[in-house]
Structures are given as structure tokens and as C-alpha cells.
Design brief:
Blueprint (H helix, E strand, L loop, with lengths): L26 E3 L48 E2 L17 E2 L11 E2 L22 E2 L2 E2 L18 H7 L10 H11 L12 H9 L2 H15 L3 H33 L5 E6 L3 E6 L8 E5 L7 E13 L1 H4 L5 E2 L19 E2 L4 E13 L5 H15 L3 H17 L5 H27 L6 H14 L4 H18 L2 E3 L2 H6 L5 E4 L9 E8 L6 H4 L5 E7 L7 E8 L5 E7 L1 H4 L7 H16 L3 E10 L10 H4 L4 E9 L6 H10 L3 E5 L4 H11 L8 H7 E3 H5 L3 H5 L7 E3 L3 H13 L4 E5 L5 H6 L2 E5 L5 H6 L2 E3 L4 H38 L16 H20 L22 H29 L17 H24 L20 H8 L1 H19 L3 H5 L8 H26 L4 H4 L3 H11 L12 H9 L1
Parallel strand pairs: 15-22, 15-25, 22-24, 23-24, 25-26, 26-27
Antiparallel strand pairs: 1-16, 2-4, 3-6, 5-17, 7-8, 7-9, 9-13, 10-11, 10-12, 10-13, 14-27, 16-21, 17-18, 18-19, 19-20, 20-21
Helix pairs in contact: 3-5, 4-5, 4-10, 5-11, 9-10, 9-11, 10-25, 10-26, 11-25, 11-26, 15-18, 25-26, 25-27, 25-28, 26-28, 26-30, 27-28, 27-32, 28-30, 28-32, 34-35
Protein name: P-type Na(+) transporter
Enzyme class: translocase
Membrane topology: Multi-pass membrane protein
Length: 1075
């Protein structure tokens, strides 16, 4: 991205011969895409080569003479003293020019000095800018001795404010001074009721449906004087709250800390003129702050320098149009309204044009937006009637209690948990009805057991932890998650609309070729004399060019220099039509080589018609052609592989660029976006200009066989239309952007991704994700991580629900097992159910949430986000596995009770052990062991929904021992399963503990039943997976083929798929075409 502060400050003293054909050594920062400025024009030096105050300005007094000795290790905002120019003494009547320019200084140059013993204050000419630019020359005069009023900085001079805040406007604060002020005044942020509070996390743990059911069970146990069971349930409740609180709070802190990585960054001048980047919340009063187009103003600033500076203050004033700022104006009194304080830039407003420097006069809650926030908070607390306020609090509390806050997936799963809670009540009613509503203590406990069995206790906690780990993993992959819903959604994207410069390419502009006619005449135009910047007509996405106007203080001539796209600049040249056509042809040839072509022009303006410098149309007409420069921005080395990976994954990549159509086409071929195997029917529309695309109606766009893969000369409106066209085709798209004008497209896209290095604050605020390295490959890694997260959520949800379904099947059918008194006997005791759900399943579910990405995760089409995690495959699998597990548990119970024990179920065996309960207690221990072992095996089986447990990763590991390698990858899950097997034995065999607490007893030969049920379960599950692979059901479409087969098949057709909806199954379509 071009630093807007450098656009008018680059000295062109370098001989143009450096741009001769074949030179590849001239580098400049790459321009932004579509809506941004091209690389800097070669412009004359301004006053001082560094920018800031011109050398002849009276502020450059004898005290320092611009020769302050400072370190040369970083960029500075400085001035330079020119020999041969008299120092002008500050007097009451002086009228001189101040030039605004922010280029980098030569090493050892000085800074903008605060005036020594100043007696004058600047008074702004207060001339409003035209539509295109603001003059850069402002007059100075007045009284500089006005004392600063801290409450009305707009009525004080910058120099008086600098004195008040003890800061030098050229040097800024030191790091030590800034740290002391930050410690004293606090961070520059608004205090609010948001963020993480320990009590809100605790309330979530206490107020969920599981805890409610457990509390009912605890109360029933105490009510029936079963103090042992009641105490154990109380301990389980406490343990669940403590563990859940610790995990949830840690996860929330992790997500909060990662979110802070995308916090706004401010540019300040500190440490003797060094330009530094700091977090916006570290700005302190007295800081010298630089802001430019796209920035969010970090604090209330009293401006003292600016160029074409405009801000949008709708947040504060309600004014929809940007406000032109007058930095040198000192208002006559303090009673001006907020919108009329044009020498101020207020916190949270956005810079829509130009650049400026100012002194921070208010931060945090002391800023204007902070005062408004305080007032709104007060109104929110005081507004409305008592009943309305109370009802609002009740609603907010109930939403928190029920978990109906958070991301869409969290809310959906909370609603699902509420549905299961309702089902639990229904099942309890079924239990009571089966006993003809003769509810004694045993029937009540049995009904509670069924209710506990149907609720997946750790569902929300595991989801929170999994998402926290996902955000941390993305941060390591240079992707910062700003909105958690994007973390859930990015895995389902079907189309990626990406910028070119800096994202697909390296963002390095190398001058490869140049056309400079009349080379000998150019140096006479660009010399080393002193120049004053009179006006700047900035780059705009609609005009695609930039013009600066300078005055040569030696010759008194006024020169205009213009740069921009060839199709914009060439029509304004003062040459014949044939010559224009020849230049256009040369532009086409250079663009066809993948070069970004800039056209440079110049003309001399009459020095006595200064008013015309503000008239953009007049300045940019009848220009003299200086030459063409072909800039090459090489693709990133990893881009080709990343694009290929997207194609294989069924994700289409679109390039939306501001470059010439032939340049864009050449780069698109180079990175693999455009395939040579493209059919003729699509070739005509695969590459279009924005004007061609925008000229089409919605119906015409929808009737296209495929949307264009490359759109050149793209505008912000074109990006929005592209997003809308993708949505009409049922696609789910990512849009990248970095400029202010990209915000609408970023907001409308399903996932908006802003550039962290070159992106504006406005773009970041509108985005869902931020790339810290501006690399397209990071987007692909984010998609892969999103798919991994989605897969893992499906895995642990399926595991938890399989456990619940099996227990419900077991307990409902178990109503038929009646003892000698006709009372239903528990196949599982209440505490056995709690143990399985709270201890065994929870850690397994957490381990599945940490599962690594499957090797074929980017060889499948995107999942349908509208369907969510509950796909038909998940629903069918969990029903088959759950019913199978519950049936095997019933079979084990029947074998022990009826096969060996003769069907004697004793009496009162639900309450405590007696001599008649041997069969029941041994059967319960067997069922407990079977259920535990099957759940442990299921944790490994659901690692992949269709691949065999013994062949999970055929690409990396083959043979009979491959299972051990693949199970060891996820060590957390491995040890959770191992611990689950190990802990089953003490629970069954510890004397007294087993009979009194769990109501089962030690077993012997029954282990054969346990092993037999485990083997039968593995056979059934593996057989179902084999059927899925054989018949191509769900993920079985891909699991039956090797990764190489899938990849090769997809690459063959990646350039010819219709693209009407990538979600419809690009991979399936590929396989059909092959067959």
C-alpha cells in the first residue's frame, strides 16, 4: 500500500536513466487494489526534502536552525535549513507560506521546531476545499501568546497547547514520559460493562439445564434420606461448576487476548522525532499523532498540519458528509459547536481523505465520544419506567441463563440443549406413566435418571474450549478472528474474492521497463531546486490518477505533475489522436507482460493564475507526455500452491484488482486462477473489466454460465455487485479488502477479511478476520482451520449424543425389568449415569474437539452452512451407533440376569444392596463396563465418519500397525481413552465404594460379555462404514479413494466446472465427468 504521507514527498532528483528498459532495481511500496492510489509520482522536492516546514519558514529560527542532532535509525518528520536563504524573524505582520508534506527526511535532518518565545499564532485562511483537493498553502499571522484552555483546545494555538502538555511538536514525547502519563491517566479506551467478568461465567455454569436436573436429583435424594447419593450428587454439581468455570473462563480469556491483537494501531511521533506505531489505547494526552485516509482517529486531536484532510464525524454530529478540516485555524472563542471546530479531529471519527498531524488533547472517557458514551450509559440506566427496566433486566438475565447469547452456533446448540431438556421432562413423564403415576422414591429417582441420561452435560463447555483453541491456532497462522461467527463460517466458503497486490503478489513494485521520449529534456523539468507544494489532487478509485502542483521558488514557475492509469491520463495529453493510439498500444503490450503501467505527464501553469490550481479539470487538461513506467509485482511463491489447493477443495478463487485487464490476466495465469483448459463458452466472460461487469443487469449476470474469475479496474461498487451475484447463486463468499471504500463489500460478504499490514482501520472495523501478513495462503489456512473446527464440532456432538441415545434406549426399555415387588429395576444406577456422562464422555469430547485436521479435509467440497452441524450423515450415524450401543448394553444385562441368574431381580435393589440383589448388581457392573468401553471405542471410531479405524490415514501410514500411529497423533484423546479404560476397574472393584455409591459389585466371567459386546460393536460400526464407502454415502464418496486419486481427478476439471454453486458438489461433479 502506498503510504499517503509520501505521495508528494519523493524527490525526483534521481536521473530518469534509472528507469531505462530492463532496469529492475527501482523499488517502491505497492499500491492498494482497486480503490487505491498507484505508486508515487516522481515529484520535485518540497521546501525541505524531508517535508514539514519549508526551510524559509520563520519557525526555523536561529535556536536550532533545523540542525537538531538526532539518531538516524528510523524515520523522522523533519525540516532542513537551506544555505543562502535569510532567516525571517517572526514579527507581528509577517505573512508567509506553510507547506504540508510528510516524506522521510535525509539522515541527520532536524525536526519541526516549536517557536522560540513565539509571539505570533497561525490564522487559517479558512478557504473550503473543492471537490477534488485543498490548497496546501496557508497563511500565518496573529498572536501566538494565547494561553491554552484545556477545555477548549480549538480556541488555543497549537504552540500554547504544546507548552501546556510539555511536548515539542517536532520531537514528541519520550517513551518514558508516555508510560508515566499512561500510568497516570489510564488507557485510551472507553470503559463499559462488556468484557469478561468472573461472575457472568459462573452464572453460565450454575444456570444450565444439566445443573437444574442435578439439583432436582440431589433434592430428591436428600428428601428420601439417601444422604450418600445426595452427597455424591452434590459433589458432582460442585465439581462440574468448578471445572466448567475454570475451562470456560480460560477459554474466554484466550479469545479476548487474541481479539486484542486486531486492536487499532496509531502512528505517533516520539523519542526525538521518530515515527512509531503503538496501540491506540496507549495514546496519551500530549502525544503527537499522525492520521491519514482510512484511519480511525485514536483520540481528540488539535490539528496543526494537514493536507486535503477530511473526516466523517457522523457518530458525533450526525452529519452524513465528511467535514473539511482547517488545521491552522484558531477559533476566536470556546463556544463553537462540535461540527464547527474544524481545527479538531475527534476520537472514533474516520479519515475519509488526506492526512494530518495533531496533538492529542483528550483520551478515553475524557474524549468527546467518551462523554457521549457516559451520557448514553446514564440514560440507559435512567430511561423507561420501573417495570420496563425490570423486564429488560429479566430478559437479559434469562437469555444468559438459557445460553441464548453468543455466536450463531452457540445459540443453536443452546436451543438444542433446551430441546433436550424438554425431552428429558417428557421421558420422565413416560417413566411416571409406566408406573401408573404411583410415584414413590424409586420411581422418582428412575425418572430423574432418564432425564439426566438425555442431556449432553459438557456440550457447551466443549464447544467454547474448541473455539478458543481454534482462534489461537488461526492467530498462529497469521489470521486474527474479530468476530467469532466467522470462525464457524470460514470453513464453508465456496468462493474467495481476493485483491491482487500484496495478497496474491509480494506487494513489491519493481520498475522493469520504461518509455521516456525526449530523455534529455526531462532533467530540465525535474531539478534539485526548492519547490513549494501548492495543491494536491489525490488518487480516487473513480478517477484512477493523482496530480500535484508545485511552485519553483527560484524561477517562480508553477508545474503540475500527473500520474495514473493510461486510459485516464492519455486522453488528457496535448498530442494528436494517432500519438495517443500509439501510446495506448504500448500500454497494452507492457500490460500483456504482466506489468502495471503508469503514465506520467506534466505541464507548466501560468504563475499569475494560482486559482486554477484548485480546479482539477483545468489542471489535468492538455498535459505533456513524459513517459510510461512498467512496474512488476511478482506473485508470492506460495500463491500458486494455495490457489491449486482451493481448486481441489472446491473453492473458486476470483481476482478483483484495480490493474489493467491484460496485467491482471497475465498474473491470473501465473498463479493458476485461470486454467488453460477453460472451455470456449466461458473464455469470453472469465476475464472482464469492471465497466463491462457493471454494465450487465442482474438477470444477465445470473444467466452467465460462470461468474468471471478476474475483474480488472475494479471499483468498490463492482465488489459489492460481485458479492450479491455470488449470493444469488447460493455461494458463500470471502471478500478481502484494505481501503476505506472496501468496507461495504467486506460487510456484505459472508466473511470479510481485512489486510493487517496495508489495511485501513475502517476496513479492519468492517471485517470479520484480519490477516497479519496480507498473504493469500493465510486465507487458505483459515479455510482449512475452519473446516477442521467444523469437523471436530460434529465429532464431539455425535459422540455426546451417541452416549445419550444409548442410555435413553437402555433405560426406557429397562422399564420392563420389574423386581419381586413389581418395581422397575435400574439397568444403570443414577451415579453410574453421572460418571459416564461427566467423567468418561466429557474428556473424550474435549479430546475430539482438539483433533487435528483429516488428511482429506481439503479434498472435499465445502459443507453447507445452512444445514449446520446436524447433517443427515451425522443424524443417521448417531442413531445407528446409539441404538446399537444401547441394544448391546441391554443384551449384556439380559445375559447376566436371565442367562446366569435365572431372571431373579430381587427386591429393593434400586435403593441399597441386600442378599437378593447379587444378579442385579453384577448385571449393572457389566452394563457399566460395556457402556464405558463402547464409548471409549466410539471416540476413536468418530475420528473419521467413513474411513476404517484401522485405515484412518492411508497416505501416511499403511499396514496392520498403522492404527497405532494415527491414534497417537491426538495425544490428549489417546490418554483420555487410556485413562477411561484404566479407571473403570477401580470403580467396579473397590469394596463398599462399588456397592454403596454406584450400586454394583465386582464381576468375573462377565468380562467375557464385555469383550464380546465390544467386538460386536466394532464389527457393526466398521460394517456400516464399509457400506458408506461402497455406496458412496456421505463422506464415503471420498474415503474410498486415495488422496492422490481425488486430487488428480479434481485438477483435471478444476478449470471447467460450472461454478454456478460450488456447494452443490464440485468433487462429485468431477468424479461423474471422469466416469
Amino acid at each position: 500500500m502506498v503510504n499517503p504521507n509520501s505521495l508528494s514527498a519523493l524527490p525526483p532528483s534521481t536521473s530518469p536513466t534509472a528507469l531505462q528498459h530492463g532496469s529492475g532495481v527501482t523499488h517502491s511500496v505497492a499500491a492498494e487494489e482497486g480503490c487505491d492510489d498507484p505508486p508515487p509520482i516522481f515529484s520535485p522536492p518540497v521546501g525541505n526534502a524531508a517535508g514539514g516546514v519549508p526551510s524559509h519558514h520563520p519557525d526555523t529560527g536561529p535556536a536550532n536552525n533545523g540542525q537538531d542532532s538526532i539518531s538516524s535509525s528510523g524515520p523522522y518528520l523533519t525540516t532542513r535549513s537551506e544555505p543562502g536563504y535569510p532567516q525571517i524573524t517572526t514579527t507581528e505582520s509577517f505573512q508567509v507560506s506553510r507547506v504540508y508534506d510528510y516524506g522521510s527526511p535525509p539522515i541527520g535532518s532536524g525536526g519541526i521546531p516549536s517557536p522560540p518565545a513565539a509571539t505570533q499564532s497561525p490564522v487559517y485562511d479558512n478557504t473550503r476545499s473543492g471537490h477534488s483537493s485543498t490548497t496546501a498553502v496557508d497563511t500565518l499571522g496573529g498572536d501566538e501568546s494565547t494561553l491554552a484552555d484545556g477545555a477548549a483546545p480549538h480556541a488555543a494555538t497549537p504552540y500554547a497547547l504544546a507548552s501546556l502538555y510539555c511536548v515539542d511538536m517536532s520531537s514528541g514525547l519520550t517513551t518514558k514520559e508516555a508510560a508515566e502519563r499512561l500510568s497516570r491517566d489510564g488507557p485510551n479506551k472507553l470503559t463499559d460493562a462488556g468484557g469478561i467478568t468472573w461472575w457472568s461465567v459462573l452464572v453460565r455454569q450454575v444456570s444450565n439445564s444439566l445443573t437444574l436436573v442435578l439439583v432436582i436429583a440431589m433434592a430428591a435424594s436428600y428428601g428420601m434420606f439417601d444422604f450418600i447419593e445426595g452427597s455424591v450428587i452434590s459433589a458432582v454439581i460442585l465439581l462440574n461448576i468448578v471445572i466448567g468455570f475454570a475451562q470456560d473462563y480460560r477459554a474466554e480469556q484466550t479469545m479476548q487476548s487474541l481479539h486484542s491483537l486486531s486492536a487499532p494501531i496509531a502512528t505517533v511521533i516520539r523519542n526525538n522525532g521518530r515515527i512509531e506505531k503503538v496501540k491506540a489505547e496507549e495514546i496519551v494526552a500530549g502525544d503527537i499523532v499522525r492520521v491519514s485516509v482510512g484511519d480511525v482517529v485514536p483520540a481528540d486531536l488539535r490539528l496543526f498540519e494537514g493536507m486535503n484532510f477530511e473526516t466523517n464525524e457522523a457518530l458525533l454530529t450526525g452529519e452524513s458528509l465528511p467535514i473539511t478540516k482547517t488545521p491552522l485555524l484558531t477559533l476566536s472563542h470556546a463556544d463553537y459547536s462540535l461540527g464547527d471546530r474544524t481545527n479538531m479531529a475527534y476520537s472514533s471519527s474516520t479519515v475519509t481523505k488526506g492526512r494530518a498531524i495533531g496533538i492529542a488533547v483528550a483520551t478515553g472517557m475524557n474524549s468527546e465520544v467518551g462523554r457521549i458514551a457516559e451520557l448514553l450509559r446514564g440514560k440507559k440506566q435512567e430511561g423507561g419506567s420501573f417495570v420496563a427496566r425490570t423486564w429488560g433486566k429479566v430478559k437479559r438475565t434469562m437469555k444468559n441463563v438459557l445460553g441464548l447469547v453468543g455466536t450463531p452456533l452457540q445459540v443453536k446448540l443452546s436451543k438444542f440443549a433446551l430441546l433436550l431438556f424438554g425431552l428429558a421432562i417428557l421421558l420422565a413423564i413416560i417413566v411416571f406413566s409406566a408406573n401408573k403415576w404411583k410415584i414413590n422414591d424409586e420411581v422418582l429417582i428412575y425418572g430423574i435418571c432418564v432425564a439426566v441420561a438425555v442431556i449432553p452435560e459438557s456440550l457447551i463447555a466443549v464447544l467454547t474450549i474448541t473455539m478458543a483453541v481454534g482462534t489461537k491456532t488461526m492467530a498462529k497462522g497469521h489470521v486474527i478472528v474479530r468476530k467469532m461467527q466467522a470462525l464457524e463460517a470460514v470453513g464453508g466458503v465456496t468462493n474467495i474474492c481476493s485483491d491482487k497486490t500484496g495478497t496474491l503478489t509480494q506487494g513489491k513494485m519493481i520498475a522493469r521497463k520504461a518509455l521516456i521520449p525526449g530523455l534529455g529534456d526531462v532533467p530540465s523539468v525535474i531539478d534539485t531546486g526548492n519547490w513549494d507544494l501548492l495543491a494536491e489532487h489525490p488518487f480516487d478509485s473513480t478517477v484512477k490518477c493523482m496530480t500535484v502542483v508545485y511552485k519553483n521558488i527560484h524561477t517562480n514557475t508553477v508545474e503540475a505533475f500527473m500520474k495514473g492509469a493510461g486510459e485516464v491520463v492519455i486522453p488528457n495529453l496535448n498530442i494528436s489522436g494517432e500519438e495517443k493510439e500509439a501510446i495506448l498500444n504500448r500500454v497494452e503490450r507492457l500490460a500483456g507482460e504482466g506489468l502495471r503501467v503508469l503514465c506520467v505527464a506534466q505541464k507548466t501553469l501560468p504563475s499569475d493564475e494560482k486559482s486554477d490550481t484548485d480546479n482539477r479539470a483545468a489542471v489535468e487538461s492538455q498535459m505533456n507526455f513524459l513517459g510510461l513506467v512498467g512496474l512488476y509485482d511478482p506473485p508470492r511463491l506460495e500463491t500458486f500452491e494455495a490457489v491449486r489447493k482451493c481448486k481441489v477443495a472446491g473453492v473458486k478463487v476470483h481476482m478483483l484488482t484495480g490493474d489493467h485487464i491484460r496485467t491482471a490476466t497475465a498474473i491470473a495465469h501465473e498463479v493458476g486462477i485461470i486454467s488453460p483448459a477453460m472451455p470456449a463458452s466461458q473464455a469470453a466472460t472469465m476475464v472482464m473489466t469492471a465497466s463491462q461487469f457493471d454494465a450487465l443487469s442482474e438477470d444477465e449476470i445470473d444467466n452467465m454460465e460462470a461468474l468471471p474469475l478476474v475483474i480488472a479496474r475494479c471499483s468498490p461498487t463492482t465488489k459489492v455487485r460481485m458479492v450479491e451475484a455470488l449470493h444469488r447463486r447460493g455461494a458463500f463468499c470471502v471478500m478481502t479488502g484494505d481501503g476505506v471504500n472496501d468496507s461495504p463489500a467486506l460487510k456484505r460478504a459472508d466473511v470479510g477479511i481485512a489486510m493487517g499490514l496495508s489495511g485501513s482501520d475502517v476496513a479492519k472495523d468492517a471485517s470479520d478476520l484480519v490477516l497479519t501478513d496480507d498473504n493469500f495462503a493465510s486465507i487458505v489456512r483459515a479455510v482449512e482451520e475452519g473446516r477442521r473446527l467444523f469437523d471436530n464440532i460434529q465429532k464431539f456432538i455425535m459422540h455426546l449424543l451417541i452416549s445419550n441415545i444409548s442410555q435413553v434406549v437402555l433405560l426406557l426399555i429397562g422399564l420392563a425389568f420389574a423386581d419381586r415387588n413389581g418395581v422397575s429395576v435400574f439397568p444403570l444406577s443414577p451415579l453410574e449415569i453421572l460418571w459416564v456422562n461427566m467423567i468418561t464422555s466429557s474428556f473424550l469430547a474435549l479430546g475430539l474437539g482438539l483433533e487435528e485436521a483429516q488428511p482429506d479435509i481439503m479434498l472435499r467440497p465445502p459443507h453447507d452452512l445452512r444445514q449446520g452441524v446436524f447433517t443427515w450423515e451425522v443424524i443417521i450415524d448417531k442413531m445407528i451407533y446409539g441404538v446399537t450401543m444401547g441394544t448391546l448394553c441391554l443384551i449384556s444385562f439380559v445375559i447376566v440376569v436371565y442367562g446366569h441368574g435365572g431372571g431373579d431381580l430381587g427386591h429393593d435393589c434400586n435403593h441399597a444392596y441386600n442378599d437378593s440383589c447379587g444378579n442385579v448388581f453384577r448385571a449393572r457392573a457389566t452394563v457399566f463396563a460395556v457402556l464405558s468401553f463402547l464409548l471409549l471405542l466410539t471416540a476413536w471410531e468418530v475420528k473419521h465418519f467413513s474411513r476404517s479405524l484401522f485405515n484412518l490415514d492411508p497416505t501416511r501410514h499403511k499396514g496392520p500397525l498403522s492404527i497405532f500411529h494415527t491414534l497417537w497423533y491426538n495425544q490428549f484423546l489417546f490418554w483420555a481413552v487410556f485413562a477411561g479404560f484404566a479407571i473403570t476397574f477401580p470403580v467396579i472393584y473397590i469394596p463398599t465404594f462399588n456397592t454403596v455409591v454406584f450400586k454394583h459389585m465386582a464381576i468375573t466371567w462377565e468380562w467375557g460379555v464385555v469383550l464380546g459386546c465390544s467386538a460386536a460393536y466394532l464389527i457393526i460400526v466398521e460394517s456400516w462404514k464399509g457400506i458408506k464407502r461402497w455406496r458412496g454415502i456421505g463422506s464415503g464418496v471420498f474415503a474410498g479413494r486415495t488422496d492422490m486419486q481425488l486430487e488428480n481427478g479434481l485438477e483435471v476439471v478444476s478449470g471447467v466446472t460450472s461454478g454456478r454453486t460450488s456447494r452443490s458438489g464440485t468433487i462429485v461433479e468431477a468424479e461423474e465427468r471422469k466416469n
